[in-house]
Amino acid sequence: MNNEKLVINWHNSIIRECQKRLGRNLTDEEEIFITSRGGFVALEMIEDTVKTLAGKELEEYLNSESIK
User: Fold this and answer.
1) How many CB atoms within 10 Å of residue 7?
2) Residue 52 domain-assigned?
3) Residue 1 pLDDT greater than 70, yes or no
4) What is the dihedral of CA 44, 48, 54, 58, to 10 degrees?
5) For residue 19, what are the CA distances in angstroms to 1, 9, 68?
6) What are the residues whose beta carbons fall under 8 Å from the beta carbon of 7, sequence distance 6 or more?
């Protein structure tokens, strides 16, 4: 079974939720944090976490793996 379309739609849904909560578009690094995952468990965990955070906390979460 090919789940590629489901995963892409899930990525897009999470990105939209983040943009709504932050009131802005995501940076490339923030999008990569989401789209680099393809497993259902990982995406479910990201989605659940995103739904509990906003503002600075959400930004910190989305950038938690960024190298700066």
Assistant:
1) 16
2) yes
3) no
4) -40
5) 31, 15, 22
6) 38, 43
pLDDT tens track for 6-58: 999 999 999 999 999 999 999 999 999 999 999 999 999 999 999 999 999 99
Report d(CA 43, CA 41) in Å as an integer: 6
Of the candidates 38, 56, 58, the one whose C-alpha atom is nearest the C-alpha of residue 48 is 58
The parent domain of residue 35 ranges over 4-62
Residue 68 lies in a domain: no
Number of domains in the chain: 1
In a domain, 41, yes or no: yes
